[in-house]
Amino acid sequence: MKIKYLLLTLVLVMAFAFAGCxxxxxxxxxxxxxxxxxxxxxxxxEEEATSDESQTDSESSTGVAAPDGSTMDMTExxxxxxxxxxxTAAPKAGDTIITFDVEGFGEIKAKxxxxxxxxxxxxxxxxxxxxxxxxxxxxxxxSDFMIQGGDPEGTGMGGESIWKTPFYNEICDQACVIRGSxxxxxxxxxxSIGSQFFITQLAKVTEDDLTSYEQQGVTLxxxxxxxxxxxGGAPWLQGGYTVFGQVYEGMDLVxxxxxxxxxxxxxxxxxxxxxxxxxxxxxxx
Length: 285
Hints:
- This protein has about 280 residues and is an alpha+beta fold.
- It has one domain (about 1-50, about 95-280): Cyclophilin.
- The protein is about 20% helix and about 20% strand.
- The strands form three sheets. Strands 7-8-11-10-12-6-5-13 form an eight-stranded antiparallel β-sheet.
- The model is unreliable at about 5-60 (pLDDT under 50).
């Protein structure tokens, strides 16, 4: 399975050098360890999506004010560690949640992590509240990896943040690219995050998989290994992508979407449309 992912990564990197997740695998400490375009990276996801947004740090550290009046003043990737953070815990009253109403499939619900990715959450919430994502597609789908959307062009080359400029990764040791994680797509450039995102779908990770990834340069803590073995996901992307939410309802629909027929560029042959993407506050029943 690891060979499959490495080959897919290579093909994707070449094919979607600017798509959104085209990546170099990153270690937990944020350092680049090896080029593994893992398709999974949805790398290509935003590489394409943000290729036209890859600016210099000085250009990217500024931008227009968001609809809520906020500004983006990041100057580098942000690293945090949050003890006690439970990524898969059920949402509680007051948590901000997102509901994706996917045409022909149903509703996928995810809770957001403002404590992990304050800029990423603010960006997604503002875009959703503007109706930015309504009517867009999951334009890139790779079974046993992820489904990617958020590009108004539907090509992997479009999209922008609420600040009209790309922003940096927000990496947390305890937030992993597990099955159901909501992550931003990006290119190898940093900053390059705009509006594209992906939902990780791979269900199973084995000890052999982890050993193979480590031999190729991926660095994982013992706790991260436990998390991936329990939850599945894409450990080779750990430390390289912003995890800003987690699906808590509707993963069966993500699985169904991941199985739709696609063309040679991983684009569904029949559009998978997000009729609406709505923000709300979770209320316990």
